[in-house]
């Protein structure tokens, strides 16, 4: 009698079983990342959500109130709260006689050919990329506001075109209830040409602007008081990151997470700095913390500096075109915003006739 070998049937693994297993793995991985102390996700997620005007609910979607409060107490930026010493700013536009104290100053004052107005420096750090615009004469810095202020915003590029701006960055914040506000309702106060042209509740920080003699003025005073002391153009935002050479108190990631940033600053010699940091672009640029921003500014000897609106609003335009990579809205030329700081050429300095190439 011939014995037959029994063949064992291999169990069939259904596709649905595999998908369910993979889904379970994803859920487990998500829980580990979100709630474990090893990845630092909550230190990124909570401050990022809590420092927005309209998305704070996202922090409480994943974490309870106690956790949110704890994380925010461990990550914060306490802006410098002292009067700006305007007399410390001695404007010197003769860059030819500058004594370089670092490679960064040499980089700043080695001008581009045929451009006496500004220089754009490419920044590439471990976690972020961005641009630093060096404006040699503060008299060339101006504030641009939309034609229909209070009704509709405009992109930074459009504000540059309509106000003869060669370079521009976004300024103060605005109402953003749907997550894609159009810049129609600015938060806080706006001063233009020595007049209060806008005032609205919800402003955060203080007034950020320039006096009639082109010195950067940071103050928590009421707009009418600031105007009486010489404030010519200003928006409301913050925090103040550097005042009279003193840096803000920063703990952890600064309480603002890692994100796209816009900052305006001035050196003791009057040179103005526009800092634009790209972020929320995985694989390209994650974004910067407040501490990293201050580190960059101090390299270039910023004496006074203030944080402007960031996130998806962080945009930069050169010669009427979007220049940086914003985290959203790039296909539309950048978000529409409520105001912008721009570089003009009122004194007919030498500037390139073509768009500056990205570095």
Give the tags.
about 350 residues; alpha+beta; 2 domains; seven-stranded antiparallel sheet; five-stranded antiparallel sheet; 21 strands; globular
Tell me briefly what this model is.
The protein has 359 residues and is an alpha+beta fold. It contains 8 helices and 21 strands. It has a 7-stranded antiparallel beta sheet with strand order 2-3-16-15-17-12-13, covered by helices on one side. A 5-stranded antiparallel beta sheet has the order 4-21-6-18-19, with helices on one face.
Structure overview:
With 359 residues, this protein is α+β, with helices and mostly antiparallel strands. Helix content is 21%, strand content 26%. The chain folds into two domains: 15-74, no CATH class; 78-343, no CATH class. The protein is globular, with a radius of gyration of 24 Å. The model is unreliable at 27-36 (pLDDT under 50).
Low-confidence stretches: 27-36
Which class do the helix and strand fractions yield? Answer: alpha+beta
Count of domain modules: 2
Ends apart, CA distance between termini: 85 Å
| Side-by-side strand order of the widest sheet | 2-3-16-15-17-12-13
Largest sheet: 7 strands, antiparallel
Oligomer: single chain
Individual helix count? 8
Compute the CA-based radius of gyration.
Answer: 24 Å
Dominant shape: globular
The tally of strands reads 21
| Mean pLDDT figure | 87
Strand content: 25-35%
Topology of helices and strands:
Elements: H1 15-35, H2 41-50, H3 57-62, H4 65-74, E1 76-78, H5 103-109, E2 118-124, E3 129-135, E4 141-144, E5 154-155, H6 156-162, E6 167-170, E7 188-192, E8 195-200, E9 206-211, E10 216-219, H7 223-228, E11 231-237, E12 240-243, E13 246-247, E14 249-251, E15 261-267, E16 272-278, H8 290-299, E17 302-307, E18 316-318, E19 321-322, E20 336-337, E21 340-343
Antiparallel strand pairs: 1-14, 2-3, 3-16, 4-21, 5-20, 6-18, 6-21, 7-8, 9-10, 9-11, 12-13, 12-17, 15-16, 15-17, 18-19
């Amino acid at each position: 009698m011939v014995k037959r070998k029994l063949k064992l049937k291999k169990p069939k693994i259904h596709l649905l079983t595999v998908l369910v297993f993979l889904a379970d793995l994803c859920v487990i991985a998500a829980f580990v990342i979100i709630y474990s102390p090893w990845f630092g996700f909550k230190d990124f997620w909570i401050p990022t959500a809590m420092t927005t005007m309209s998305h704070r609910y996202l922090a409480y979607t994943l974490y309870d109130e106690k956790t949110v409060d704890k994380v925010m107490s461990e990550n914060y930026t306490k802006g410098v709260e002292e009067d700006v010493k305007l007399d410390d700013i001695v404007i010197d536009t003769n860059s030819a006689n500058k004594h370089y104290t670092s490679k960064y100053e040499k980089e700043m004052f080695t001008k581009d050919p045929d451009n006496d107005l500004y220089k754009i420096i490419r920044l590439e750090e471990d976690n972020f990329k961005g641009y630093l615009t060096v404006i040699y004469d503060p008299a060339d810095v101006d504030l641009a506001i939309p034609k229909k202020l209070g009704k509709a915003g405009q992109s930074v590029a459009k504000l540059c075109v309509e106000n003869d701006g060669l370079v521009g960055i976004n300024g103060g914040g605005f109402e953003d209830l749907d997550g894609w506000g159009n810049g129609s309702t600015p938060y806080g106060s706006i001063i233009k040409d020595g007049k209060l042209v806008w005032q609205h509740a919800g402003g955060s920080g203080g007034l950020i602007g320039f006096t009639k003699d082109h010195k950067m003025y940071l103050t928590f005073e009421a707009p009418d008081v600031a105007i009486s002391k010489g404030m010519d153009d200003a928006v409301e935002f913050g925090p103040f990151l550097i005042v009279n050479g003193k840096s803000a108190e920063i703990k952890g990631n600064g309480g603002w997470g890692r994100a796209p940033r816009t900052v305006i600053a001035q050196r003791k010699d009057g040179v103005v700095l526009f800092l634009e940091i790209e972020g929320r672009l995985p694989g390209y640029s994650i974004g910067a913390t407040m501490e990293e921003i201050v580190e960059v500014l101090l390299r270039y000897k910023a004496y006074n500096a203030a944080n402007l609106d960031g996130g998806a609003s962080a945009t930069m335009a050169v010669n009427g075109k979007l220049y940086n990579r914003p985290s959203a809205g790039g296909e539309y030329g950048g978000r529409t915003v409520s105001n912008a700081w721009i570089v003009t050429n009122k004194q007919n300095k030498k500037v390139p006739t073509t768009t500056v190439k990205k570095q």
